[in-house]
Amino acid sequence: MPDRRPSASPVIDHGFGETELTSCTGKQRPDAWQESSRLQTGPLRVRALQCLARRDYCRAELRLKLAAEAESAEQLDAVLDALQEERLLSDPRYAAQRVAARAGRYGNTRLRQELRQKGVGDEDIAAALAQGDDESERCRAVWARKFGVLPQSVEERARQMRFLQYRGFSGEVIRRVMAGGDE
Q1: What whole-number distance in Å separates Cα of residue 135 and Cα of residue 171?
Q2: 103-122 average pLDDT score
Q3: Which of 30, 32, 73, 120 is 20 to 30 A from 112 in CA distance terms?
Q4: What pTM does this model have?
């Protein structure tokens, strides 16, 4: 009959004898992970997962969405940290997906501004924009869909340039497109 001694760590019986669950260093795991998991299993984590199931969020955007439901800022930060550790919440992934979804209609300036407003960091924005298509090609495609022919008057040229500026394309790219150059 095996010895039933009280132990703080879980004991597993594989049929070959009892073994205690320990960490890789041979020390017993602290119970801190159990306490943090209790914080995460609450309704706040469930609500965060429901939001993330619909679409990706950046950390700042999800924080704003969940702030009203959180009991404390520490609880909210703990849930968000856990989601980031589990790679369910990722600002670089959010930025890359946002750029991929909107790059066909907008220029880098507008995309950068939108991501900053959402609370994404400059490094993540730069990496996402670097992964995107060439801004000149995108500007040319937007211009071709909207107008298709080079302007015949100064007023028409100004109107087309304003449209492309509103879409967030840089002045240099707009001038190249309006000149009709392929480079």
Answers
A1: 11
A2: 95
A3: 73
A4: 0.72
For residue 35, with 0-12 CB atoms within 10 Å meaning exposed, 13-18 middle and 19 or more buried, which class applies?
exposed
- Cα–Cα distance measured from residue 52 to residue 47, given in angstroms and rounded to the nearest whole number: 9
SS (H, E, C) the chain: CCCCCCCCCCEEECCCCEEECCCCCCCCCCCHHHHHHHHHCCHHHHHHHHHHHHCCCCHHHHHHHHCCCCCCHHHHHHHHHHHHHCCCCCHHHHHHHHHHHHCCCCCHHHHHHHHHHHCCCHHHHHHHHHHCCCHHHHHHHHHHHHCCCCCCCHHHHHHHHHHHHHCCCCHHHHHHHHHCCCC
The CATH number corresponding to 90-133 among 1.10.40, 1.10.10, 2.60.40, 1.25.40 equals 1.10.10
pLDDT, mean over the chain: 83
| pLDDT at residue 181 is higher than 70 | no
Residue pair 138/107 in contact by the 8 Å Cβ criterion = yes
Q: Provide the pLDDT for residue 147.
A: 93
Show the tokens assigned to 59. Answer: 């950390």
Which residues share a beta bridge with 12? Answer: 19
